[in-house]
Design goal:
The complex is a heterodimer of chains A (279) and B (389).
Chain A: H1 6-13, E1 26-32, E2 37-45, E3 52-60, H2 63-76, H3 81-85, H4 89-95, H5 104-121, E4 134-136, E5 141-142, H6 143-153, H7 158-165, H8 175-186, H9 188-195, H10 203-224, E6 227-235, E7 238-245, H11 246-249, H12 253-268, E8 274-277
Parallel strand pairs in A: 7-8
Antiparallel strand pairs in A: 1-2, 2-3, 4-5, 6-7
Helix pairs in contact in A: 1-2, 2-5, 4-5, 5-7, 6-8, 8-9, 10-12
Chain B: E1 7-8, H1 19-25, H2 41-61, E2 68-71, H3 74-88, E3 94-98, H4 103-115, E4 119-123, H5 133-139, E5 144-148, H6 162-171, E6 175-179, E7 198-202, E8 213-217, H7 243-281, E9 285-287, E10 298-303, H8 308-317, E11 320-321, E12 323-324, H9 327-330, H10 337-341, H11 346-349, E13 352-356, H12 363-383
Parallel strand pairs in B: 1-11, 3-4, 3-5, 5-6, 6-7
Antiparallel strand pairs in B: 2-8, 7-8, 9-10, 10-13, 12-13
The chains are: A alpha+beta (279), B alpha/beta (389).
């Protein structure tokens, strides 16, 4: 169960301004059934003053989606369109006493519906997603939106990007792209973190560990079958070995090397280890 | 009708401890505290109960007590089965399961594929959630080390043809494991007739407290121990036995066997009443799964144009507990992997709710649920931009 604030539950159970607005002169809709949430926002704007006189909404979505839409309508009524455009998704979340991190996209959806409705009122064309720019096919999120959210909210990790935009939360195929964009937006410090999650093993430490595993685990195993192994060199993750005795004459020597030695070293030392037979 | 009735329809998640089970366990929190391995009388009298409990579990499957290994939960049983079999035979590099398995199986398979270099085949299902057995026949090869197919699905209640699947596996010389966590005790399973090699069971789906499971290992199945330690469980799982829970599980299996037929009738009638009532009262409502072979206690219903978490929270406020394959309840963003594998349309995948009953569910509770659910669906549809009367 999510840890929703009392205010989120209150707006979910008793949404303010729910329903259609018959005399609306601005309508914006974002989201879809496939996405799992959608919001249709209706505004009645005074043409003279550009003040939002009434706001109503329809929402398909979870409790925080409904509560965010309800909060949005409360926030924008009485504001001019320009004032309303200055409302951020954080303000929507704050109005509700906060949203769980994974649900921040619900407040982003509120902000987007507002922008769509105002664009509709002003006769501007809402920027449509172009197929080739869509990065997350599951939730139809384009690269621009991801970059914008990274910049606005100082996002640092894929999880945070997913929490704000939903991108990467489905099949996961775009996670590589999200990492790339994060690295580009945040500079090299993050890039290094992403590439090198595990603490990097020094060459000496790796050499020692390889030697230990070969001597204590692999060699005894081969000796049981009348063979032996000699460690010749370790160059980063390339491990040079010589096979002796029964193994050396064995037609399956290469397979033995690959399967046993490499698997064992990858498991015990480093998953990037490559075994090379020394001449 | 009581306004704040409490109705528990989430028995596939966990269920109440039966009074009989609780009573059977109590002495082991009191005077019967001995270690069953001890030679003295404190241990000896406890060991007898352990033997009886093992016999009761074995009797439910018509197997030998020495084929029963007690574990801490269904997930441990699944992990033991899968990793133990692969550990004991490292030559074969192909593993086969289905896209609709519980994460306790599916994520273990995916871990092995990702980190241990196994080739994995995940069998798909059709729109009703059924497997294609011809496809299964073609994917099993001499390199296949293990096949895992659940007996019944936790989300839809669909029952897979385990006997046929086990026979195909046997014919192809592939070790077969089934996760029977949802099915065990709900449908008859005679393992003398169904040639599975390994079967997982979880106590708390059978009215014991959480913390006890079983792995059935057919005699002769090559499998490495999961917890290396003492001689307990024939050396297959070291660690002092969880005696109170094992005794409780013995009692739970005994109760399940004693009441299986009448219970199945009773529960399926209530389930059918709920399902028919909801479909009659609410338009745009669909059943997920195959009604021809489902567990008697489960229904998974998709309500079009609304979202599962909202439904569950409104139901919860009215005192009704159910669960959802909706993304929003789980913290992920995609709807349930089971519904997605079945190709359930997005229009009701997000609004699918599972109601799972037990023998403790009453007719009055179903009446109350039939009154509340249509009100909740109506409220949310009035809010939905996609629903037009």
């Amino acid at each position: 169960m999510w840890d929703y604030t009392k205010s989120v539950i209150d707006h979910f159970e008793h949404p303010r301004n729910a329903g259609k607005l018959k005399d609306a002169n601005a309508v914006g809709q974002v989201g879809s059934l496939a996405c799992g949430d959608a919001l249709k926002l209706f505004l009645k704007v005074d043409p003279e003053t550009e003040k939002i006189e009434k706001a109503k909404f329809l929402t398909f979505g979870c409790a925080s989606a409904i509560a965010s839409a309800s909060a949005l309508t409360e926030l924008v009524v009485g504001k001019t369109l320009d004032e309303a455009l200055a409302v951020t998704n954080e303000e929507i979340a704050a109005f509700l006493g906060g949203l769980p991190k994974q649900k921040m996209h619900c407040s982003v959806m509120g902000k987007e519906a507002l922008e769509a409705a105002i664009a509709n009122y002003r006769g501007q064309k809402v920027v449509e997603h172009k197929e080739q720019e869509v990065l997350c096919k599951c939730f139809w999120v384009d690269e621009e939106k991801i970059r914008q959210n990274i910049k606005e909210h100082g996002l640092k990790t894929v999880e945070e990007v997913t929490a704000y935009t939903k991108a990467g939360g489905g099949c996961g195929n775009c996670i590589g792209d999200i990492k790339r964009i994060l690295a580009e937006e945040n500079g090299s410090s993050v890039k290094e973190q992403l590439v090198e999650k595990k603490p990097k093993m020094t060459n000496i430490a790796r050499m020692k560990l390889v030697s230990k595993v070969v001597e204590e685990e692999i060699a005894p195993m081969l000796r049981k079958d009348g063979g032996d192994i000699e460690l010749v060199d370790v160059d980063n993750t390339d491990v040079y070995v010589k096979l002796r005795g029964a193994c050396a004459r064995c037609a399956n020597a290469k397979a033995t090397l690959r399967q046993i030695v490499e698997a064992k070293l990858r498991e015990s030392v480093d998953e990037d280890i490559t075994i090379i037979e020394a001449q | 009708m009581q306004e704040n009735m409490q109705v528990y329809l989430d028995n596939n998640a966990t269920c109440m401890v039966s009074p009989g089970v609780r009573e059977a366990m109590m002495p082991f929190f009191g005077e019967l505290y001995g270690n069953p391995s001890s030679i003295h009388n404190f241990g000896g009298q406890v060991a007898k109960h352990l033997v009886t409990a093992r016999e009761k579990v074995a009797a439910m499957f018509n197997v030998s007590p020495d084929e029963i290994v007690f574990t801490s939960c269904g997930s441990e049983s699944d992990n033991h089965a899968i990793r133990g079999v692969l550990e004991s035979n490292k030559d074969k590099r192909h593993i086969v399961t289905t896209k609709v398995e519980h994460p306790a199986v599916l994520n273990v398979y995916r871990f092995l594929a990702k980190n241990k270099g196994y080739k994995i085949t995940e069998l798909g299902v059709d729109n009703l959630g059924d497997l294609n057995l011809d496809e299964l026949r073609t994917v099993l090869s001499p390199d296949t080390a293990l096949l895992s197919v659940m007996t019944a699905n936790n989300e839809t209640g669909n029952i897979f043809p385990i006997k046929e699947i086990a026979e195909i596996a046997k014919e192809k010389n592939v070790i077969f494991h089934t996760d029977a966590v949802q099915a065990a005790g709900k449908i008859p399973m005679d393992l003398k007739k169904i040639p599975v090699d390994l079967l997982s069971l979880s106590g708390h789906k059978l009215h014991t407290p959480k913390g006890i499971g079983v792995l059935y290992i057919r005699r002769g199945t090559p499998i490495s121990p999961f917890i290396i330690g003492g001689h307990q469980e024939n050396g297959r799982r070291g660690g002092t036995e969880n005696v109170p829970y094992i005794v409780g599980l013995g009692k739970a299996c005994e109760e399940a066997v004693a009441h299986m037929n009448e219970e199945s009738d009773y529960v399926s009638k209530l389930r059918d009443k709920l399902e028919a009532g909801l479909r009659a009262a609410i338009s745009h409502t669909y059943i997920n799964g195959n009604p021809l072979h489902r567990l008697p206690n489960t229904t998974n219903i998709g309500f079009e144009f609304i979202e599962g978490e909202s439904i569950l929270l409104h139901l919860s406020k009215a005192g009704i507990a159910a669960s959802s394959g909706s993304a929003c309840t789980s913290g992920s963003l995609e709807p349930s992997h089971v519904l997605m594998a079945m190709g359930v349309p997005f229009t009701y995948a997000h609004g699918s709710v599972r109601f799972s009953l037990s023998r403790f569910t009453t007719d009055a509770e179903i009446d109350y649920t039939l009154k509340i659910v249509p009100e909740v669906v109506k409220t949310l549809r009035e809010l939905s931009p996609f629903y037009e009367e």
